[in-house]
Here is the input.
Amino acid sequence: MEIRGACIAGLGAYVPQRVLTNQDLCDIVDTSDQWIVEHTGIRERRMLAEDQATSDLAYEATLLALEDADIPADDIDLIIVASVTPDVPFPATASLLQAKLGVRGAGTYDLMSGCTGWVQALATGSQFIQSGSCERVLVVAAEALTRVTNWTDRSTCVLFGDGACAAVLEPCDPGQGLLSFAMDTQGDAAHLLTIPAGGSRTPMTPELLADHKDRLHMDGHEVFKLAVRGIPEIVGQTMEKAGLEFDDVDLCVMHQANIRIMDAAHRRLDIPYEKMVINLDKYGNTSAASLGIALHEHKCEKGIAPGDHILMVAFGAGFSLAAAVFRWV
Ligand code: COA
Here is the structure.
């Protein structure tokens, strides 16, 4: 018996209104617009308002995804939210989103995996559709990175921004929608990108707080190398599973972390630049949300045709890698 497919039937994205430019950051740390653009490709990013939290961003993106899918919120069976910046340590942001949507009878949980979270959540949600356990799964990635940014560390504070994306997954014909995915993690490199304190290993103390250990720490150099080395491998696995060649890819949407990582990937994967979706100049690295925000923007501005092959590639904390190929329905 052929297993039914799982496709993205609706897509939405939301970024907060407040813009933080490179010039604004020059007032906070010793940096320059030129350094940031040359080393990262980022020109500005968005920052959530004081009274906003991750679930608020998730809600806005979800409303657009539901509208795009043309379904009421009540039709959702399961809500998965990918985030490393939840409203509170627990309960899950997905539960808070469920309350905002007023959905009854839907399961909820969060998936905490940093920048790979969106691809992992899409793969996870698709399993529920393909197995017949769910008819409609809402997959959201929402991040408020500026809440965990160390504003005294110029090597990280210039990189991150806030935003959310959402997708409604529905059943489709076999051979359509999600064709394949692959995941890999190098847990021995987990310390390279982390919030060092505040968990069960190192509970927070006033000294740790004063030392910004409640904030994001990253060895950018090492993360850069792991990403550039790991992307061709994870993409190769995904393409092989889907039975596709690189020429078959119509659109490549990568996690929007650094233009130099994208440049390196585009050279190694032999995917033409015009097939890559790039919008990190406007939003910076919004972690799990970046890929979906870029995909949504491309869909709104240029459209995606049925049958198009979309390659998604993400990497980040863990150190984790994930890639997926969709045949658009
Ligand atoms: N403005 C000005 N100078 C800066 C700076 C900033 N914002 N940040 C760092 N520098 C300085 C450093 O202090 C260093 O100075 P020094 O040589 O006097 O010590 C110099 O620039 C070079 O630092 P380096 O860390 O080697 O820069 P880089 O070219 O590796 O760029 C990153 C730093 C963070 C931009 C880069 O490593 C990177 O993008 N890594 C990947 C990070 C990423 O994408 N993470 C998310 C994965 S999900």
